[in-house]
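ping. complex inputs:
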Amino acid sequence: MSEIKRAKRFNESSLFFLGLIGLLVIFGASIGYLTGKWVKQAGQAGDSPFLSDVSFSTGLSIGLGFVLLGTYIISATLYGLALMHKGVAGSRVLTGGLGGNPSSRKAYPYLILFYLGYSAAFGVLTVLEIGAHHSPANAPLFVGAASIGVAAMVWSALRLWSILDEFFRAIWVEACALSSFILLLIALIGLVANKLELIPALSGYSWLVLYQWVYLITNGWVAFKRDPNILSLREHADT
Amino acid sequence: MRNRLKVLRAERDWSQAELANALDVSRQTINALETGKYDPSLPLAFKLARLFSLPIEAIFDDEP
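pong. complex structure:
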């Protein structure tokens, strides 16, 4: 590919990337404002119908969901810092095991976008789960934010698939397969128990939170099995 | 699967990073290959063979 074509593709890709980030920021700010307004009004009314009605499993899911959201936002921040600071980039534990290799550093912008998109889509779901008021007027805002978040995830994941080398792709695929299988087993047991009225039904949000936690743990286990140095603070010496 | 990557790399006085750059993979991939935690794909195995000017069987051994 000629240098001119390569430069043009890079500029188009950068513009698309920046455009998605900008849209996410706008949607995030709008939803944050609406949610804050709703929380303030609910507080002023002196009651909180949500808190009095929420079940233990829903409350637990929302708590764990907020922890997940925090994790994704912190991850995006760390990859952003890794782009600017060599010390952060050189730390494998802060970069999800990627380290500061030239090939790994290419992935950082797309990882930032992936986690921001993930936070946006999952954040919308979490806000709706805690009972934020939605109306025909503001529903498009939630739909738009979730859609943009998912689009950002899909685009960045496609780019990451071509950037990451086969070792990291293998970890990714293995973690997805194993976590899906584990959740299948949990779902079979859980649904049978629910049918027998031994446990209450879980909401879709709770199942999604459960899957994300299973995936995080599975991914960590698979990565550590393949690369015991993945949690090192610095790049390790040659073996 | 066993391999002689570490020996072949040492004979040429290459670091893991240098070998990784030559193959356009991450250093973590080279480390995982050398420690036996990961087996390469066929395209990567062929790349290694071409880089070391050796047949694949001279680098990798699947005998228990």
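Chain A has a mean pLDDT of 81.
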